[in-house]
Specification:
306 residues, alpha+beta, 12 helices, 5 strands, 11% strand
Amino acid sequence: MEEVQKRHRQEQKELQARITQKKKSATKKIRKGVIDECADLERQLKERQDHELSMVNGEGVSSGQGEERDTQDIAGSPIEPSVDETALESPIQHLVPSSQQLKNDQVRKPNRQKARLARRAAEQESITLQAAEEAKNLPDLRQVESSAMRSHYSSRGLREHEIRSDGHCLYAAVADQLTSRQYGLTPKPAITDFQVNSQSSVPQYQVTRTVAASYIDDHRDDFLPFLEEPLDQYLRKIRETGEWGGHLELLALARAYNVDINVLQSSGHVERIGAETGESTKALWLSYYHHNFGLGEHYNSLRQAD
């Protein structure tokens, strides 16, 4: 019994060495097949060794003939292998296909990944062509918007002064209106700790940014219900970054400068954002675009036509 177990351990050790060598020698293309074959070799060896141990222990023997056969087996007579032992002794190179076999495999098995990529590319091209075809039948929204705006300017005696398209456009448009209409950049009524230096090289849009932020800060209760972030963080964005402005900032500027701000849209609708007192006779005019500029929404200044 001890002799059989010793031989089994030696066989297992040799098989593990062969399996390790086979896996090292396997290419990526044949690795799965090598792994499967190695697992099969391990299974076959285990079955044969289990069978031998059961014979040594006297299990599965139904007659004296079987006992005699067991005795012969233990004495050294060759035991009929229950598996193909030649598979254990086959050289490593049998697992590695020849270059001709690889060529044949490539002919028989098309590259599925390339086929999928080609199919996706064809589908994407089809979608792009379809979208381009549909776009031909759609109106040019920029052209429609520009045409409508020009008509509204003419009917109201206004001309457009284009403002640079960036996050400062609302503040720059308001600053242009205040200076071109000679209302000045000093807020009325005065804002806490705010002063305009006419000699300063600070851009005009930065002045209106500061005015908007300071007014909101001085009248927190009027604006807090509409904020979706902490007030200090919101004010910092107005003062120190290029964050876009919107309705709340226009409302703050209208009240700080005691003016009505009229925002003209391509539909012809004018949104009036009034001063807090409702007694202002001063009015600013801005144009508001949805589609006409690369960054999307945009404000321009509307001056009086010459």
